[in-house]
Amino acid sequence: MSELGHYLKTKREEQGISLERLKELTKIQKRYLAAIEEGRHEALPGAFYARAFVKSYSEALGLNPEEVLETYGSELPQPKQQTNDFPSRAERTKSQRPKKKKKSAFAPVVFGIIFFVVVAAGIYLVIQGTANNGSGGIAPEDDPSIEVDSNDDQTTDTEDNNESSEEPASEDEEESVTDEQEQEENEENEAEEKTEDDQSVPELVSTNNRRSVYDASNVEEMVLEIELDGNSYLDVQDESGSVIEDFAGVQPGDTVELDYSDRDYVNVNIGNTTAVTVRFNGEVIEYPDDAVHQYLIFDKTVD
């Protein structure tokens, strides 16, 4: 038994805490806790987990984890230097965000052409009407065989004038309707985009003791993408603390997609936030805390 294991076991027994109870407090498997006490560090998943497990063990007993690691840390295996150069989370977030499509400029051009054709047609009709009114012919007084009804002439002139005055009004109405339709379409598109954004991303409501709670009551789908860039302990728990996903076979470089739309509560336990990227419905979740070990809780029943 190593000095570290002997020290931690002694403190645990002094407080009357069993390994089973310590497992519930730390969320670390019992066989790993026993390996730490017995000094069998090679039984742990890796060098990073050794230090992370000792830190969680110390915190559960109310000890100062930094002092424990400073005193006995030389007994633990040292993590290998990461050689891969990964982009920052901000760069990955920028690259992952879908680009919004630009609105086409084709529609205004088509409306402009239609408006021009309508105006030209109106002008042509007005000119034709004026030409017909002023066309040559035999004057009534020069041809005694033709009787002219002055009332009919006045009626015809009135109808022509009405047609000429009504044509521009119809063009203005068509232009106004076209502008209103385009404005309504733009407003509908903006409202749909805003609604889609609001319904896909949860809202952060609290952060306390490395636990961040997100209100997911406004989303219909709850799809998590978990991308592993390095070594990290991972699991997903329900509201009772039971593990529903342990990521046993996940390796660095893997991305796992999990659909929890049928659940009201999921708790993502992340041992090393510097090596894990979490996306909720395609949107990257920024860690609200600087701690390495964090919990991201998505709850549809938040009051």
Architecture overview:
It contains eight helices and ten strands. With 303 residues, the chain is an alpha+beta fold. The chain folds into three domains: 73 residues, lambda repressor-like DNA-binding domains (434 Repressor (Amino-terminal Domain), Orthogonal Bundle); 74 residues; 97 residues, no CATH class. The longest helix is centred in the middle third of the chain and has 49 residues.
What brief labels describe this structure?
303 residues, alpha+beta, 434 Repressor (Amino-terminal Domain), 3 domains, 6-stranded mixed sheet, 4-stranded antiparallel sheet, 16% strand, RodZ-like_C
Secondary structure elements and pairings:
Blueprint: H1 3-14, H2 19-26, H3 30-38, H4 47-60, H5 65-72, H6 89-96, H7 106-133, H8 150-198, E1 203-208, E2 211-215, E3 223-228, E4 234-237, E5 243-245, E6 255-259, E7 265-270, E8 276-280, E9 283-284, E10 294-299
Q: Provide the gyration radius in Å.
A: 39 Å
Head-to-tail CA distance between termini: 49 Å
Number of strands: 10
Q: How many structural units, i.e. domains? A: 3
Strand order of the largest sheet: 1-2-10-7-4-5
Main sheet attributes: strand count, strand direction, barrel closure: 6 strands, mixed
* Order of helix and strand elements from N to C terminus: HHHHHHHHEEEEEEEEEE
Instruction: Report the average pLDDT across residues.
Output: 78
User: Which stretches of 5+ consecutive residues score pLDDT under 50?
Assistant: 82-86, 135-151
Total helices: the number is: 8
Percent helix among the residues?
40-55%
In percent, how much strand structure appears in the residues? Answer: 15-25%
What is the molecular shape?
Answer: rod-shaped
InterPro entries: Bact_Cytoskel_RodZ, Cro/C1-type_HTH, Lambda_DNA-bd_dom_sf, RodZ-like_C
Protein name: Protein RodZ, contains Xre-like HTH and DUF4115 domains
GO molecular function: DNA binding
Keywords: Membrane, Transmembrane, Transmembrane helix
